[in-house]
Structure formats: C-alpha cells, structure tokens
Amino acid sequence: MSEMINLQVEMRTEKGKGASRKLRVQGFVPAVYYDAKGENIPLQVRSTPFRKAWEQAGSTKVVELEIANGDKIEKRPALIWAVDKHPFKSILIHVDFYGVDLEKEITLQVPVEVVGKAKGVEAGGTLEVYRDHLEVTCLPTHIPEHITIDVTDLDINQNLHINELALPEGVKVLFEENFAVVGVVEPSGSAEEAEEEAEEAAE
C-alpha cells in the first residue's frame, strides 16, 4: 500500500453563506466529512494545501485527514468525493470528504481509458465507447485511477464485453448483464461504394 497523503483540516463552527464567504476570504475552503454511518462533520481546509493534495490524490487515492479540534487531532482516512468550483473564478466553493474504512470494500464509478489502435479501425471501422465509467468494488487503497482497455486486437463488428476485461488486482466490476463496453462498427459506406463514387466523380 502506498503512503497516504496527509491533509490538515479544522473543525468548522460557523455555518451559512456569510460565514463561508468569510472563510474563503481568509484562504479557507468550507468542507464536510461524511461517511457510510451517517456521520457529518463540518470542516474548513486551507485552499493551497488542499489543492496540492487534490492534485496528487484526485478522487481515487485515500487522504488521511488530520482533524484539529482545539488541542486534539483526530486522523480519519477519506476520499476527496466532490469539489465545487466557482464557474469562472479560480475559487473553490466547497469540498466533500467521504470517510472510508481501509479494511472494508467500497463501491464507486471509475473512468474507462482506451489504449491502442484497433485493427478494425485500421481497416476503416469506427471505434465506439459505450461506457465511459464502470462500477467497481474494491478496498479503498486499491481504487484504480481508471480501467484500461486495450483495443488493439478488436476487429470490425467485434465488441469487448464487461466479463472480458482485464481488471487490476483486488478490483471487481459490478454488472447484471454482460454488456459491451467498447466495439468497432462498420464504416457508414462500404469500400466498394466509395470506389464507385470516386470513379463517377472522375468521369
């Protein structure tokens, strides 16, 4: 297991839009820690350290929150679950941290990353990605940044189904039907039709 990123946060006592605006002016971002047990803890985190942690962790790596409450510090592992940004200013509006148990599996959506050039595409077909995210279950420390799908051997009219994917160790994908994730479809017109059109144009 890779070393977790530490992030210092503080308990937040004041609530409301006015208090949140004041925090942002002071260089803080309002935040909330919540978990599957229903616990919600209002927090505040300094913008610059949070941005650095977010850049490293994204939404798939566990960060260890060091929650300061007076003289006490409580450590809780969490994912950066959601970040609300200002629509046109470089300002973070709000952050949600989702608390995790490192010994219990979690279910979440992970993006798909397609690599390679399908031989069907080389032959004139078109690659179609039917699912850009997949629902997976794994321990928090095993969450992949993405599910990589190599389409190199995929020919025209062939699909890769969910049960054919190579998954990272410790990761299970959830599905009820064996659906296609990616495929190569025929070009809109056949090669013969294209040749005929080219000949007619030349004449």
What do you see in this structure?
This protein has about 200 residues and is an alpha+beta fold. The chain folds into two domains: about 5-100, Ribosomal Protein L25, Chain P, CATH 2.40.240; about 105-190, Beta Complex (RNA Polymerase Alpha Subunit, Chain A, domain 2). Helices cover about 20% and strands about 45% of the residues. It contains four helices and 13 strands. The strands form three sheets. A six-stranded mixed beta barrel has the order 1-3-2-6-5-4. The protein has a four-stranded mixed β-sheet with strand order 10-7-9-12, with no helix packed on it. A hairpin with a 4-residue loop joins strand 2 and strand 3 (about 40-45). The longest helix is centred in the C-terminal third of the chain and has 12 residues, at about 190-200. It is elongated and about 65 Å long. Mean pLDDT is about 90; it is low at about 190-195 and about 195-203.
